[in-house]
């Protein structure tokens, strides 16, 4: 499992750690009998460094039938379109993070609506939770992470130019409910 992780797309969000976060001694791959699989284990204190997916939260802001998407200003998928989203930080709920990221990336304040879905893939190190959102204030502006922001009619969503699988899957799920 560890060797699979080291050579995969996981590493775009997960740096496989070399040292123990508890005591700084080197980690090495060991087979853990009671878990029946390989793990990264500390040679000093025995700490097991588990590698888990990280959570991303985002919103699909809806304006009278149009949705707000942004063009990514940074890698990965720079230049492609998606809805505002980003990593959930410790101390936040997924809803909090979705609202904050929407504000940071687009300048608009939103009220969270129903969840569209949670998007998780075996070969991705990210789980993305997406909510519908109603704009309640702010002013649209770009930032380092968003090079353009545009309202798209549902008939005009740039399907060929969407950034992530979760962008496509969440927008399809949202559309089905309209
Ligand atoms: Zn240790």
Bound ligand species: zinc ion
Low-confidence stretches: none
Global Rg: 19 Å
> What class would the helix/strand composition place it in?
alpha+beta
- Quote the CATH topology of the largest domain: Nucleoside Triphosphate Pyrophosphohydrolase
Please describe the structure with a list of short key phrases separated by commas or semicolons.
single chain; about 180 residues; alpha+beta; 7-stranded mixed β-sheet; 3 helices; about 40% strand; binds zinc ion
Element layout with pairings:
Blueprint (H helix, E strand, L loop, with lengths): L1 H5 L20 E6 L4 E6 L5 E2 L4 E10 L2 E7 L8 E2 L2 E3 L6 H13 L1 E13 L5 E13 L7 E8 L11 H12 L2
Parallel strand pairs: 4-9
Antiparallel strand pairs: 1-2, 2-3, 4-5, 4-7, 5-6, 5-10, 8-9
This protein binds zinc ion.
Provide a compact summary of the structure:
With 178 residues, the protein is an alpha+beta fold.
Overview of the structural elements:
It is elongated and about 60 Å long. A hairpin with a 2-residue loop joins strand 4 and strand 5. With 178 residues, the chain is α+β, with helices and mostly antiparallel strands. It has 3 helices and 10 strands; from the N terminus they run αβββββββαβββα. The protein has 2 domains: 2-49, no CATH class; 54-176, Alpha-Beta Complex (Nucleoside Triphosphate Pyrophosphohydrolase), CATH 3.90.79. The strands form 2 sheets. Strands 4, 5, 6, 7, 8, 9 and 10 form a 7-stranded mixed sheet that branches. The chain has a 3-stranded antiparallel sheet with strand order 1-2-3, with no helix packed on it. It binds zinc ion (ZN).
């Amino acid at each position: 499992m560890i060797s699979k992780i080291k050579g995969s797309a996981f590493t775009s969000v997960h740096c496989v750690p070399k040292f123990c976060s508890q005591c700084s001694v080197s980690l090495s791959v060991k087979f853990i009998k009671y878990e029946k699989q390989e793990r990264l284990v500390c040679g000093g204190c025995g700490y097991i460094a588990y590698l888990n997916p990280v959570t991303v939260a985002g919103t699909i802001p809806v304006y009278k039938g149009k949705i707000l998407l942004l063009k990514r200003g940074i890698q990965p998928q720079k230049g492609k379109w998606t809805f505002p989203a980003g990593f959930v930080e410790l101390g936040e709920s997924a809803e909090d993070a979705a609202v904050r990221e929407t504000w940071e990336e687009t300048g608009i304040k939103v009220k969270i609506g129903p969840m569209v879905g949670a998007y998780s893939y075996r070969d991705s190190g990210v789980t993305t939770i997406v909510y519908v959102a109603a704009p309640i204030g702010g002013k649209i502006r770009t930032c380092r992470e968003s090079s353009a922001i545009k309202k798209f009619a549902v008939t005009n969503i740039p399907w060929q130019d969407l950034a992530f699988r979760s962008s496509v899957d969440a927008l399809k799920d949202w559309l089905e409910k309209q």
